[in-house]
Amino acid sequence: MRTFDYEKLKTQKWDNEIVFLLAKIRERKGREGFVLSQKPALLRRLETIAKTDSIIASNALEGIFVSPFRLKRLCGGKALPKTPAEGQIYGYGRVLNEIQDRYGEIPIKVSYLLGLHRELFAGCDGACGGQLKNRQNYISEARTDGRAFVRFMPLSPYETPEAMFSLCASFQRALDGGEIDPLLLVPVFVNDFLCIYPFDRGNNELSRLLTVLLLLKIGCSAVRYISLDKKIEATKEEYYEALNESMKGWHENAEDASPLIKYLLKTVLSAYEELEEKISSSREKLPALEIVRKAAMSMRGRFTKTELLGLCHSLGKASVENALKKLLEDGYILRYGSGKNTYYTKR
User: Fold this and answer.
1) What is the C-alpha separation between 79 and 218, in angstroms, rounded?
2) What region, left, alpha or beta, does residue 232 occupy, with left being phi > 0 and alpha being psi -120 to 50 degrees?
3) 37 CA to centre of own chain
4) Which residues 6+ apart lie within 8 Å of 230 measured at CB?
5) pLDDT tens by residue, 219-253
6) Does 1.10.10.10 match the CATH number of domain 288-346?
């Protein structure tokens, strides 16, 4: 009989790779506040991009694709779904928005997980969102000859309600206890959730959404700005292999979730590294005045404002005009003519 007791994680010994990854992520989390205070406008853009990337990547993992035009309208709330595929994309976006906006208010309770599942299928007519499974489901895999086989048998429907309540309660007790690193609790919870496979549909999608929810709740803000789904989709073979290995022996309470723990820790660390790199590269960009000065100094003979605009394509017209005025005042360039006939030379 399967039981859920996360307290046993307190005495488990972890190998050097897991210890190293935990230390590196803690280091990133320690300077997270400073990093995130650097570029608020950039972070808003990154958050928007990450949401779109997550919707595309998660649905791609399930073999669901729509045109870029429809995707943009669905993600922006400017259109309602017309097909089952669009319904799933629409629902995933709604749940992701709710998680990012309200993650601090969403408790890990079965009733709330049912609510997220209901929202996931809000755009699908006739879908049984928000209800635990009522028939036995299977996690299957295709052989090289194309024939499918059952890779893992989840819990039966009659066992599922009690297992879900026990899973959520055990996770919350361990999190509240504060004696187990929450970065270890998250992948163990996700592994247990997928072994239960509590719904007829949407288990994989919801597991990834719950991963983001739990990471945000424990303070890993990087997944708000860098898409975890996109990273999983890019390394899906490694992801599925980690899941396969972590499920072995689960029914007998003899599983080892280390493969999924390592995979998720590496993915979270990669998100932090990418976020820091994006903020750092943005911070190192030259100011408008320096961009225009370098462009002006590269000119041979006379040049016009229009020619500078062509070289300084990252800047707007007003920025180039203000920079030209400052360069004139500082004596870097000289101006001749007036109106449309104005031109400049280096001093």
Assistant:
1) 34
2) alpha
3) 20
4) 50, 53, 54, 56, 57
5) 999 999 999 999 999 999 999 999 999 999 999 99
6) yes
